[in-house]
Structure formats: C-alpha cells, structure tokens
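Here is one chain, start to finish.
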Amino acid sequence: MVLPIITYPNKILRQPAEPVTFPLSKEMVKLTQDMVDTVRKADGIGLAAPQVGKSVKLIIVNLEKSGVPTLVLYNPKIVTKSFVKTEIEEGCLSIPGVFGNVKRPKKVTIEAQTAEGKTVQFTDDGWVARVAQHEIDHINGRLIIDLIKKYTQGAEIVKEWRTKKLL
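Its structure:
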C-alpha cells in the first residue's frame, strides 16, 4: 500500500525516531513493505519512516534503477566516516521543490539490522553511502535544509519558512 508522504514543517520530521525491536511485529513488517511500495511509486531513491508518519528507525535505500537491490535497514547508524567529503545536489520527498548542494562524507561504514534482527555492517563510497546518510539524518530529526549552503531551487520557500519562524 502506498502511504502519504509527510512534508515539512510537520513536527515528526524533527523528532529523533525510536529503535525498532525484534522480532518484528506484523505492523512493522507491513510498514516496511508499504514504505518500499511508497518510495518506488514516488520514484524516490530513499525513504525514512518519519517521512510516512512513523517515528521508528527504519530506512529504505531504493537504487534499483542503478542495479542495486533495495536495502531495508533497521536501526541504522554510521560507525565510521571518511575525512574526504563530496558536495552533491540533494532534494527530499518531504521538502518538495527545494534542492541544494549538500556536503557529506564520501565514504561511510553503516551498521544496521536485518528483518531477522541480525546485525550487519557495510562500507560504501557511492550512492548507497549518500542515500543512507540522508535517510539516517531523517531518523535523527535532521533535514537537508539544515545542511544546504547554496540552494539550486526553492530558496524562496525556505526564506518564507524563516520569515514565519518555521525553521
């Protein structure tokens, strides 16, 4: 089932999410599948549970169009990150119309749990690393509007939020 995507300034996007517990409940299994359906339908490359109104540490990395199987990560966290950073334009399904350059570590090691509760760790220096960092920010209440130094689109939207003290 495709879920509605929550947009800023909804307060859930600023709340640190709660850890997922194991074994997974039926509701969590359904949420996971619904999130996969939602990110695919939205043509997104990533989605975090707060973006669909659930304050839990669950992210989806959807790079199937690049030949990478969809990653479902429970309780993900960055355990190491490179000193070297790259700056790339980012957007967000929860902040439509706003794009800008975001500087992030090029290489990260991420620890997470699988649907079975098994802890896994992987290192990446490509798109998986980039998308996972963006989604991990979401489960920690951090958004690209906190990181963008130069807007490529939507600066007027953010300026209006600042005027209304929504930022």
